[in-house]
Description:
alpha/beta; L-2-Hydroxyisocaproate Dehydrogenase, Chain A, domain 2; 14 strands; Rossmann fold; six-stranded parallel sheet; three-stranded antiparallel sheet; 2 domains; 19% strand
Amino acid sequence: MRRAKITIIGAGNVGATCAHWCAAAELGDIVLLDIPMTQDMPRGKALDLMQASPIVGFDSKIIGTNDYADSANSDVIVVTAGIPRKPGMSRDDLLATNAKIVTSVAENIKATSPNAVVIVVSNPLDAMVQQMWKVTGFDSSKVLGQAGVLDTARYRTFLAMELGVSVEDVSALLMGGHGDTMVPMPSCTSVGGIPVTQLIPAARLEEIVDRTRKGGAEIVSLLKTGSAYYAPAAACAQMVEAIVRDKKRLIPVAALCNREYGVGGYYVGVPVVLGSRGVEKIIELQLTATEKAAFQSSVDAVKSLVATMDSLLA
């Protein structure tokens, strides 16, 4: 049986660690691609990872390259390309720079892997996945963003730490944009089947939600010279697995919502069924009045972000 072909664009910490998780799980053969300016770096990382295969015991083939031709006819593509925000750089500077990078990546994907499912990780996430979809012209089900899996994992981690229980027993959901406007869903959060609202007082739960919103920034402040990559990469690998193994996972991703939730054609975090065809179904929940208001506020922030990006690229 043919192995899936997985291309990871951007061989930095997130991309290389995603390749590590995918290889260890034998999800397919992997192409680790980065821009020519990085020269032999992706080849070095790919070779290093391949040399781990006899120890860990996986048979995935891994190559590193600067050439999109090597990624041709990929089944799944994970896009981590982009720059982090640097001191003195405005939010608009970051938005404009990464939008141009994602535009170039999208053009190359369209030319070399027209049937791929594309997972965008680049930030600002909600705008970058919108731009990827716009430039590739792919069916919206084949273009999605990774944020909800990561945000929910952070939320579940903090809840498990608070209660002193296994993370395996925590089930949770967050929706909306990635970052400060993400929307917690207490009505969809439970621990061992027990509603979280019966286990954690409302005020303390809000503190945990706030820590989740700032989860990435907290890690940046601790690392000093970088940003999170283990958990973001693991989240990408979970999504890749759902696609290449047609797992039909019900997980939150950034998906294009038209009539759903009344969004009107923007990518926002919502629960979906993720399988071999990409986003196979968007799950529409009955939101409480509070949840609905918070979600709308998050959607408005995404719309503003996309409008700013479009004006900067015009």
